[in-house]
Amino acid sequence: MRRVKLSNPFKTRIIDEKLIREHLALERTKLANERTLLAYIRASLYLLIGGLALLQIKEYPELHWLGYGAFSVSIIFLSVGIIRYIHLNRKLTRLLRPETTSENNES
Q1: Does the pLDDT value for residue 44 go beyond 70?
Q2: How far apart are CA 28 and CA 19, in angstroms?
Q3: CA distances (Å), 47 to each of 26, 53, 70, 75, 85, in order?
Q4: Where are the domains of the chain?
C-alpha cells in the first residue's frame, strides 16, 4: 500500500491513499448533491416564471389553467429537490460520522 504525503500550510501529515480516495469521493458526492438541488431550484423558477407569464395573457383566459398547473409543478419540483437534498445530506453525515467501538469506550 502506497502512502501519500499531503502538504498543508499549517501542518504536514501522511495519509493513506485509500482514505484520500474515499474522502475525495465523498466530497464529489456532496458537490453533486448541491448541484442537483440547484438544478431543481432552477427548473422550479422557470416553471414559476412560465406560470406567471401564462396568467398575464388576458386575450386567452383558457390558458390560465396551464399557468396554475405550472405553479403546482413548480412547488412539487422545489419540494422534491429539497427532500432529496436533505435525505442524501443526512446519509452522508451518517457515513462521515466516526464509528465508536468498544475499544474507544473502554479506554
Answers
A1: yes
A2: 14
A3: 32, 10, 5, 9, 20
A4: 15-97
Q: What angle do CA 56, 62, 67 make, to 5 degrees?
A: 50
CA dihedral 30, 35, 40, 43 (to 10 degrees): 180
- In 3D, which of 46, 47, 29, 11 has the Cα closest to residue 85? 29
CB atoms within 10 A of CB 20: 13
In the prediction, which pLDDT does 73 show? Answer: 96
Q: What is the CA radius of gyration of the chain?
A: 23
pTM recorded for the entire structure:
0.70
More confident residue, 31 or 18: 31
pLDDT at 107 over 60: no
